Amino acid sequence: MKKMFITGCQGQLGRALNVFYSGHSDIQLINTDVNDLDITDEQAVLQKVLEINPDIIINCAAYTKVDECEEHEDEAYQINVTGVRNLCHAANEAGAVIVHISTDYVFNGEKKTPYVESDAYDPQSAYGRTKMAGEQMVCQIAEKYFIVRTAWLYGEGKNFVGTMLHLSESRDCVRVVNDQFGTPTSAEELVKVIDLLIQSDRYGIYHATCEGSCDWAEFATEIFRLCGRNMKVEPVTTEEYGAKAKRPAYSVLENRRLTEEFGYRMQEWKPALEKYLADRGLMKKELVYSMNKKRVLVTGANGYIGRHVVSALLDMGHEVIASDFSYDGVDERAKRTDVDLFSGDTDIYEQYGRPDSCIHMAWRNGFVHNAESHLTDLPNHYTFIKNMIEGGLPQLAVMGTMHEIGYWEGAIVEDTPANPTSLYGISKNALRQMTFLLASGKGVKIDWLRAYYILGDDEKSSSLFGKIVGWEKEGKETFPFNSGKNKYDFITVDELAKQIAASATQDVVHGVINCCTGNPVSLADKVQEFIAEHGFKIRPEFGVFPDRPYDSPGVWGDAEKIQKIMKGLE
């Protein structure tokens, strides 16, 4: 377990860090704020750090009142520079990595294109000067460090979003500057970057703001629109507004190193703002509903399961891009594409129109478990997933199978050991491992959807139940069967499709997800139930075939995750 020491824990970023890591059993948080530790006191800092012996120090403490810094630069220097120096020395003594949060104010704001990490310092305010000096302290002293520059931050606590909404309660008009350009950045999105960085040793300076840019008046207008507030925004110039400290006119930051070093792309500022407001119940209800709708690419859209998934997504209100060789069974409401799934093109994500989510279901010979195509096709699946992730896909769901596990007795959970015994299971298991490896450090949400025993739409199925339908049509009175005592997790294709659609479009539960009922039922009971429901005359002859020694007496999926996901739709 790693120890993470956070200074300034009551600030917006400190709070977001605590929320993010609250569910991480491998991280122990130790929080301090100004009342617990004076970071300008060198001995107190050293004593505290050596007492804790942290692996990581995240310095969120700062004097951030920009206008007040003009009159209290000495005090700002003590916190923003001396305090940083003390933390760096202590970090070295403890062998800890230090993450120092900095700002766009270290630049002059005169550039017309986004600032990159290597651009020259030229602060125009006391706040900017002290933050620049703090960065220099980190670079000169710290042995292992990340400097993370961000801008226009909002989270839990006092910020521009809260100020605008507070003003809207007592006014019908607000004056906001429209000649300062930057990027509103959610503290929740910034924490994801910090987490990405501290898992590496690629030390140095990084920019981390949400993507896109706007001016302050545009930012205010978007806040009021999303919250349904009837508020007029009166644009004014910086000079007309009359703030004490000089602000950078253009401080858009390019996250160049995040892209080049990690292939990581932060969320666009508008969707990040929408999520922030929606999570706090501040967003207009109609817009919350609309916000949850996604553009979803479904590969294998005309397959046995795929066509049901397409319809389930459309019924949920999502836009669907269907990809397959033919579309005779695909819901007419879906958009169809002629993009070659396995072309190997590196820009395939762009070719598909940059969907919000992809459900990768395309797979040959799914019912022929030892077909060599499972192995020979595997490189194509790997390349497709690799190119989609590197292109910037935010969320990927891939269809898995219980056959990845091989022989197992009891419930299959997320980390049940895999020992597949068929080419199908071996290939799917390999693809699962490849997918999570490809996604590591990329910021993409991965949902590996593990399916079990499927019935329904049986004339299009090669399962036992599909065969029973065929035998009934042929007029057979009986069919040979084993004892039917083995218990399995049966699910209808329609219910499975709903679970797949829900899993691939939600933002709460990720990783390996069992799409199942969680209820083991004997094969004999399910077959007889199936025959009775359809009014068939055919009957099984139990005991004609011996039970296969490699069939489990009972195997099913742990349904905890999928039940949580489906409950979220209620």
Structure explained in plain terms:
With 570 residues, the protein is of the alpha/beta class. It is built from 21 helices and 26 strands. The strands form 8 sheets. It has a 7-stranded parallel sheet with strand order 15-14-13-16-17-19-23, with helices on both faces. A 6-stranded parallel sheet has the order 2-1-3-4-5-10, with helices on both faces. The protein has a 3-stranded mixed sheet with strand order 20-22-24. Strand 4 (97-103), helix 5 and strand 5 form a beta-alpha-beta unit. The model has no long low-confidence stretch (mean pLDDT 92).
Briefly, what is this?
This protein is an alpha/beta fold. It contains 21 helices and 26 strands.
Topology record:
Elements lengths: L1 E6 L4 H10 L5 E5 L10 H11 L3 E4 L6 H6 L1 H22 L2 E7 L22 H16 L3 E6 L2 E2 L5 H8 L5 E5 L3 E2 L2 E2 H12 L5 E4 L6 E2 H12 L4 E5 L1 H4 L14 H7 L6 H11 L5 H7 L3 E5 L6 H10 L3 E5 L11 E2 L11 H4 L5 E4 L12 H4 L1 H14 L3 E7 L8 E3 L10 H17 L5 E7 L1 E3 L8 H11 L3 E3 L6 E6 H11 L7 E5 L4 E3 H12 L4 E3 L13 E3 L2 H8 L3
Parallel strand pairs: 1-2, 1-3, 3-4, 4-5, 5-10, 6-9, 7-12, 13-14, 13-16, 14-15, 16-17, 17-19, 18-26, 19-23, 20-22, 21-25
Antiparallel strand pairs: 8-11, 22-24
